[in-house]
């Protein structure tokens, strides 16, 4: 148990340790019968409260008789006494005024002249009472926090805990699929003011790691969505959520990179693909599903994945490498789930080789189904795709992650190699048939 002390052991000149704060008052003696004060003050009542003391009144010596002065008349004597009285009154008033002035100065300026004064004088508003500018980090956090929730979902092994954000006033919440994956029983959502409501999982898309919940409450404050296509490296961001079950946690950082492709395999589970916004904002277990917001408080991503040096996922923690699903992608998938019960998956209409390797990068096309986007654009088996919208491709997972970031019907520029020569073609992506 922590012990807080106000004083320390000290020693008087006889070498005996005493307990208490130096300069503190004491009204008892030690077990030895000695005074707890300095030995050279044992007979001094002003320094040793235990020393005997008494007030002694000594009779005044009789003054010598005064001879009357015949030159002073009775009226003159009365005038002299009046003058004495007047001088005494004026002196008292001056002394009182001086004492009051000094008392005020001591009280307001910190004490007697030469005494140390802690802190600097200031006339500003105390920080606890000041209103933060809307565009400050504190101002952004205060606006977004009411729209961020902690999600708790029952599972076979206990419960899963993550974060989410309110996407509509009638109670839809967006989060990660891996937060609600394997849910068994009731899901609950806790707001920043600690109120809790029931929630139902509406739908989820495992490969893109997006899920939607519906709350049994309306009239909510939704987040403001930004445009993840306009995000730039170096932009300041805030990550908000419940890392390690610490609700309403806000961390800050910058956008470290864009279009960071990640393939995440879960033992016995789905393979997830991300073309992510990378950030150095501190993100840990429990942040999943929470928003990544820009300096204006607009959601630009959904925090989803971290990179760690730990081999065990349960021991992984923040090392400044975190990844968020771009909000344009997450919002589109969530809208599909709300409208259709499932999300459309965007495809390019080509199968790739898993064994192709080239020091210059690229992915080799092995099969091009007729009627698909790649076939319609003139791509053939044997072509090596090198870039999509100028983002380099190193392995097949890169192509899948980048294509899934776009909506069906969007056109992308594809650079590829054929017979040793570079080519560029525009491909209009499509939704898969499932």
From TrEMBL:
Keywords: Hydrolase, Membrane, Protease, Transmembrane, Transmembrane helix. The chain crosses the membrane at residues 84-107. Pfam families: PDZ_2, Trypsin_2. Residues 25-37 have a biased composition (Polar residues). InterPro entries: Chloro_Bact_Ser_Proteases, PDZ, PDZ_sf, Peptidase_S1_PA, Peptidase_S1C. Residues 1-52 are annotated as: Disordered. It comes from the Bacteria. Residues 337-420 form the PDZ domain. PANTHER family: PEPTIDASE S12 (PTHR43343), PROTEASE DO-LIKE 8, CHLOROPLASTIC (PTHR43343:SF3). This is PDZ domain-containing protein. It comes from Rugosimonospora acidiphila.
